């Protein structure tokens, strides 16, 4: 299934966060997809408000049985999320624990079985 897209534009105020969390839940239920793509390209300069928003959206999605995936995060937002210890799936990147397309794992003779 194709995930729905939620475009996050401009600085988001505290009053808008609850509505966006509701939007994530509704999109997950309406599409039946396991993820909502959050386009963060227009979110503005990254800061703790953006980190808080994304953490709350992820929590809302998980409570609804899904996840969020980030589209177009800038290097500064990506670095800030790493700094605070939040890991999000990024659109266009292989999922965690999956090798990148076309990468084959090699086994050396004598390696123990895993």
How would you describe this protein?
The chain is globular. The chain starts with a strand and ends in a 24-residue tail after the last strand. Strand 1, helix 1 (14-31) and strand 2 form a beta-alpha-beta unit. Helix 1 (14-31) runs parallel beside helix 2 (48-63). The protein has 114 residues and is an alpha/beta fold. The chain has helices at residues 14-31, 48-63, 75-84; strands spanning 4-9, 35-42, 67-71, 89-90. It contains 3 helices and 4 strands. Helix content is 39%, strand content 18%. A 4-stranded parallel β-sheet has the order 1-2-3-4.
Give the helix/strand class: alpha/beta
Please write the string of helix (H) and strand (E) elements: EHEHEHE
Mean pLDDT: 86
Helix proportion: 25-40%
Question: What's this entry about, in short?
Answer:
Helices cover 39% and strands 18% of the residues. The chain is an alpha/beta fold.
SSE layout and pairing:
Layout: E1 4-9, H1 14-31, E2 35-42, H2 48-63, E3 67-71, H3 75-84, E4 89-90
Parallel strand pairs: 1-2, 2-3, 3-4
Question: Which keywords apply here?
Answer:
alpha/beta, 114 residues, 4 strands, 39% helix, 4-stranded parallel β-sheet, globular
